[in-house]
Amino acid sequence: MSEMKNCSCGCGGKRKGGPGYRIPAGKGLTLADVPVGSTATIARLLPEMRGRKKFADVGLVAGTELRMEAHAPFGGLLRVKVMETSMVLHRDDAARIVMKEECE
Length: 104
Hints:
Layout: E1 39-45, H1 52-57, E2 65-71, E3 77-82, E4 85-90, H2 91-94, E5 97-99
Antiparallel strand pairs: 1-2, 1-5, 2-3, 3-4
């Protein structure tokens, strides 16, 4: 019998986009779901997100428009452009940033 190990990010061993992964009900489209090259607007940051002030300090707040520049191989990091600054986020943090549904 094989045991499923829990990932430190809390995904239960089911990495974002992997088989069996489901977006939790009521969260909708998250930053982690935005395709490369698309522009999207932040709707809200989920309350359980760690370091909300840190993200606000760099401009990741409701109403901010950003562009997804790249997804790192193996699903770890995402590179986004906010205003004129590119920054890298962990995928588990990006999964706690809810986007408005219309992605360009």
